[in-house]
């Protein structure tokens, strides 16, 4: 074989960090050694894998072709190494990016179950909106994602975890809180505080309301659900939020769910990953634990 796993690791680290120096630091090697490994790999393959823009390295056409294949080889090698070393069939780490609702209400229980059943597995979690989760999966920053709604990118594989739905909410002192039913005209006359563009919640809401009230009076857009929830509780705004995020406030009377018969905002929470990624036993463990959590919830 004309190339080594070490050379592929250097290539992958440069693709991930955008520079030889950062890649060398990530791999705990000298910059000159990293440069030499990349040069040897490019010579052996007979193709330039990067375009050099000063200190910045941008993947060439051949680099884009090689990247998923190199990552698959490196992932398989890591599983072999960890499995033999620890004498565990499932061990290692996975980087998970989750949208806010899933991260707050579902992922902690999921990670707790994994920690209990698979103590050699480490789940590194980042919380991002749906758009950033998808982009991070495509850019190889994350191994697995949890998003709201669907992803139609052909490079992404998707597995539905569970259903959820969005609700339009008002504070208990808002005039609409007393109405049994709200019309689209009333929605267009209200003041709104909403999730930022790029959030799965916002995308689903925009799709559901566009043909009913295409022009809304949006006063504020925020990334954090607690900010929106408290604005609605304390002020005279409406918002559209996941039921999981407002269930306690609804039960305790701080918020009221408005009845808008024309709007159906059922959605799914789904796992996503790159189709060209390697088979990953940790990913399968997460799927099985997630499925068992839903089954347990249904039968409670």
Automatic annotation (TrEMBL):
PROSITE patterns: HTH_LYSR. InterPro entries: LysR_HTH_N (IPR000847), LysR_subst-bd (IPR005119), WH-like_DNA-bd_sf (IPR036388), WH_DNA-bd_sf (IPR036390). GO terms for molecular function: DNA-binding transcription factor activity; transcription cis-regulatory region binding. The keyword Transmembrane helix does not apply. It comes from the Bacteria. Residues 3-60 form the HTH lysR-type domain. Keywords: DNA-binding, Transcription, Transcription regulation. Belongs to the LysR transcriptional regulatory family. This is LysR family transcriptional regulator. It comes from Ferrimonas aestuarii.
């Amino acid at each position: 074989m004309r190339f080594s796993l070490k050379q592929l690791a250097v290539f992958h680290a440069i693709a991930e960090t955008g520079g030889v120096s950062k890649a060398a630091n990530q791999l705990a090697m000298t910059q000159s050694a990293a440069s030499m490994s990349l040069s040897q790999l490019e010579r052996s393959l007979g193709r330039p894998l990067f375009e050099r823009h000063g200190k910045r390295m941008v993947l060439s056409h051949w680099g884009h072709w090689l990247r998923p294949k190199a990552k698959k080889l490196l992932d398989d090698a890591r599983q072999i190494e960890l499995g033999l070393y620890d004498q565990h069939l499932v061990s290692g780490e996975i980087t998970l990016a989750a949208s806010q609702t899933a991260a707050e209400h579902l992922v902690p229980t999921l990670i707790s179950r994994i920690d209990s059943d698979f103590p050699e597995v480490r789940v590194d979690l980042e919380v991002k909106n749906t758009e950033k989760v998808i982009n991070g999966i495509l850019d190889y920053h994350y191994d697995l994602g949890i998003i709201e709604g669907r992803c139609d990118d052909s490079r992404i594989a998707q597995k539905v975890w569970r259903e959820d739905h969005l609700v339009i909410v008002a504070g208990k002192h808002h005039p609409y809180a007393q109405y049994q039913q709200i019309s689209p005209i009333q929605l267009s006359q209200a003041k709104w505080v909403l999730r930022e563009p790029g959030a799965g919640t916002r995308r689903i809401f925009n799709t559901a309301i566009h043909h009913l009230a295409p022009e809304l009076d949006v006063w504020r857009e925020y990334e954090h659900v607690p900010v929106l929830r408290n604005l609605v509780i304390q002020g005279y705004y409406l918002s559209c939020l996941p039921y999981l995020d407002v269930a306690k406030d609804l039960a305790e009377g701080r918020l009221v769910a408005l009845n808008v018969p024309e709007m159906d905002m059922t959605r799914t929470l789904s796992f996503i990953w790159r189709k060209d990624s390697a088979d990953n036993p940790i990913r399968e463990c997460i799927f099985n634990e997630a499925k068992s959590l839903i089954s347990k919830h249904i039968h409670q």
